[in-house]
Input
Amino acid sequence: MKQKGEDKKGGVLIPFKAIAYLFKKPRTLRYPFESKEPAMRYRGFHLNDWDKCTGCGNCADICPNEAITMVEIPEIEPKPGEKNERPKLDYGRCCFCGLCIDICPPASLRLSRDYFHIHFDTDTFSFLPKDEKSDKEHFLGSEQYSILKASLTHRKENYEGFTSELEYSLFEPQRVPMPEIPPDERKLSFIEQVIGYSKEEAKAEASRCLECKLCEDACPAHLKISDYIKAVYEDKPDESLRKIFEDNPIPSICGRICMKHCEAACSLSIRGESLAVRWLKRFVADSIKDYKTALELRAAEPTGKKVAVIGAGPSGLSIAYFLTLKGHKVVVFDSLPSGGGMIRIGPPLYRLPLEAIDKDVNYIASLGVEFRFNTTVGKNILFEDILKEYDAIYLGIGTTVSRSTKVKNIDKAHLALPFLQENKIGQGAKVGKEIIVIGGGNVAMDVAREAIRLQCMQYPNEEVVTKTVSLEDWDELPATEEEIKDAKAEGIQFNPGWGPKEVKIEDGRIKGLLCIKVKSVFDEQGKFSPTFYEENEMLLEGDMVIEAIGQAPDFSFVPKELFEKLEFTPRRKVKVDENGMTTIPKVFAGGDIVNLNLDAVTAIADAKTAAEGIHKMLSGK
Amino acid sequence: METLNLNLNSKAGTSARELELYFGPQHLGMVGNFSITLKVEGDRILEARANPGYLHRGFEKLMEYRTWIQNFPMVCRINVVEPDSMEMIYAMAVEKLAQIEVPERAHYIRSIYLELARVGSHLFGLWAYANMLGFDTVAQWAMYHRDLILDLFEELTGGRVYHIYIWPGGVRRDFPPGFKDKIVNTLHSIGGCVPDYDSTFFNNRLFYERAKGIGKLTQEQAKQWGATGQTMRATGMKFDIRKVEPYAAYDKVDWDVPVRQDGDAYSRVWVIRDEMLESVHMIFKLLDAMPEGPVYNRIPNPFKWKIPKGQAYVRCESSRGELGLYMVSNGGDKPYRVHFRTPSYPNGLIILEKLLKNASIADVGNIMISLYVVAPEIDR
Output
């Protein structure tokens, strides 16, 4: 049956039409004299920008053929939050699928359009990819390049093929947004700004984690972040909490105010938003009503040793926890009526409510730690007596004295810490309508944002203003970007680059703050040494001035002869050895008096070190 | 348990006129890693037994040991001739199990890409068939034109043979700039050679004489023996998964299923020719109708991706017939069980054996290649 198109009776000579093709130009390429340029997206050999590569190892984890191994490169000095490992490719296994490219968070790994490698030695197929930036010798310009010599070590420069595109990446660069109370609403009270993730939101956020663990190296206390995030994703909050408590006994506090070194190191933050590690920790702490049943931790058999901890702040609480679990009897002294130390009086209620602190403190107390509140060492009990009575002492006293600028008439101004304390655990300070906050750090932001709340509460429907003045300019402000953004949203005015000169007084009342323009804040060595344009003055009007320029520790409780023995580092920190012990025997220290980070998680890290040191000393090992 | 009947190898009980002939895999008429044991008497084949197993790589088992994303670059390797329908079917199964939506534009791109793959695959098949019949000129043309299609794939996906392009959630990259024109130009330049193909091969008296009535099967037999694709359509049955169970964007444009009536090698090769032309027309229509927009809905983090418990059977029309994938997830990060239903399996094992009976030795390659047997698909 003949059908459409068929012509079975075609003449036998018709096929000879094909002879015409003899006279056409041949299509076959005469390699190597004629070569075909690979497409722009060609998936050839790898290129790796060693400067951008963080050594996270995601490429090795996703490779379906185990063609990638991470190799330590001793010459590389890893930047903070990075590893000195780089991917090594085995081209005997690689299938050129490019999954490694689509998962690479910094987009350092790319594929080139080179694909020639001929060699008798199979070992040459194992290769550490670099690119023209770090390997000028093997990536050659068109003059030196010859296709006859093409190999893994004879490549064309600027020959990039398949590259990573964020839109098609295998990781999610966008964070699950944290629900917050809007600025205009939160300004009217001390309500907690951040609402917290729901279970679904937390799971979705946790699912973004690539488990590369760069964060764990960056965290001062080396929390097992990747594990506890995974437990959140798997909907096992108990397991997650247990992982957190291995290294951090105050998750409810840290879940709110941690300085999150982990998030700065997060692979996802390179081209997108970092994983919300802090909020996920907060979610875990908040979603578990009772730590005790979830953790099932019990102190070891009593050792009969007694340890005194001075200060119930993050580092004091942590060491009490670690040592109690090891069976030592721990007594914590603090002058405040309840636990938390600086954390209890410093961070404003809208960031860290008191219930969150109590939850952690109460759990630590329930393990058998004895807290002696309202007990100021040096006043209610003498340091010498503690030294005699206890087998080891830990100083976690923090920095409790506000520094002052000491300019003219500054005695009329308020200091940050008493102001914050009054608002946190007191009645709430009486504020003016036009407040000037001196300082550009996070404490200054806390003060200013508390001030604007008090103004809104004390002068409803009236025009009020809070302004900050700081030596540092916009790009140098020590406060975190997040704090500055929130403060701006709440209407705080900023005057960066101005230094206070004098508090102007008229009729016994504050008129304003006379400021002078800052020339530079730091000297050539990077040391704090401000210089000013003396003639360039400005009067900031205001009826209340609060100083928030930093804090210092108070060692007045240490007797003079002992204090002389206490050595300090050049940056005025208490000197401790690798076990956390100071130069006074059996006296250990940690927290803000020891480290330069001045944050809770570093205080926990110090406590962990000192706890190991004390345990070693007490158990005679 | 019944043991495999291997008495083909034993000389006992057979007449001295019978001879055992081992056909392939080194035999020039054999395309791919496959062989047939023939029992012949003179030129007549008494019995044929297909021997797969030269290319068994255990893909279905391997897939149980790789995560959902790690399987994506692997499935295509099951079939080197047309890897794209393998990618498609894996993506379809994962999307069905994990309930992932695919953007509209990605559906169009998938269809265009799969049709290009069909043309490429058919040209490859035409090369094999023409080469086997001795039409070397046509075979060279087909190979060259397939290369032009591979150039398009290289431009779009970065790979020439294994494209690793359709992944769960859409496709891996959008069209590069100017790609639409490139497709149109390439297809026009191939289409311009269709009259040459026709006069040199399809309407060549030699092809007619050589293929007519060879390897003939009826529609009834085709149904019974599990034939799909052009083997079935050459018997007059209009059956195409793209019409029966439309996927991607096949229901968005108007197109026709080419059929022939005679069920022999001649009809099968003509169906392949008509399908190529239909695919080209369909690509033009799809390119015109293609909407703008995203082409990829991001899949979950591959390191934490678990797919809920469930099972899925999906099928698509590969260039050789119905390609099915049955996949079970037990809620883990890897497939629990995977099974492919590949069109070459019934074609190469069942139908081939039956059609070779009483055929002439000279027709073995003719029948086998007209059935479009792709050995790696049988073995997997």
